[in-house]
Amino acid sequence: MLPFELCPNVKHIHISYQALVSYISEELFDGRVLWMRDAELYKVIDVKPLLGYLYRNEIAGYKFWGHIDNDMLMGNVMKFLDPLLETHDIITGLRKGDNGKDMMSTWGPFTVYRNVPKITELFRHTPDLFYVFNNHSAFFFDEWGGDSGDYWDYSMTKIINDKHAELGLRWHGGFPLGWDGECEKTPETPRCSECTLTEKFYSKGHTRSSLTWNRTVFQPNEEYLTYDVLLCHFQMGKKIMQPLFDKLTPLQKRGLAEANPLYLGYKEGFHL
Fold first, then answer.
1. CA 269 distance to own-chain centroid
2. Whole-angstrom Cα distance, residue 180 to residue 66?
3. How far apart are CA 46 and CA 170, in angstroms?
4. CB 115 within 8 A of CB 65
5. pTM of the model
6. 185-234 tens-digit pLDDT
């Protein structure tokens, strides 16, 4: 039971970690997966590229599927995606080369795949899929095998670079993004990074979110750098925000859910 009401176009499918491992084991490996059962929960990042296949019945009829992280605010996603959907099969947040290599990449926090078997089942092109999932370690299969590259050979990024010509894969990467990673280096800055989420009303009663990233540069007396973004990734700030959020009363949490605009700051967390 979720502690809040979902939007009418959102469906929540609950599954425990052990049930997920059993499902993967039966669907892809004839029930042979054992070691993954004892892995740390971070291992679930390796499952992301499989989701379109595992939940193929639930997404039948949809043109695309994808995965995002749970430490982000999403903006007006379709503003950025609409121009690309007819001409691309794999769309991700990072530009070519953002992973330190001058190549196409997938990205765990935001990657979208066309819902056709050729794209949805790209994961099958890894050299030993059973090795990836009958394992305690997180392989960072959804990206490029970890920053150290230990599992590069077992990564979706390697697959799309090896197979893009043969399979005719159409890749797009690169959107305006907000990320608070550099905030840890500047603890003296009160609001080194902040997201502002607002709703703008359009015709026929539909609303679209607008997400603005306010980014200070690291010189005294400089103004915020402000621009619209696809998403804000509070990868570091969540460590600070969680204890603050836990202290809020149910009424205060409801106030955040209904706020317009809503602010999310690195140090301050959510605020009105």
1. 20
2. 23
3. 23
4. yes
5. 0.90
6. 776 666 678 889 987 755 456 667 789 988 765 555 555 678 899 999 98
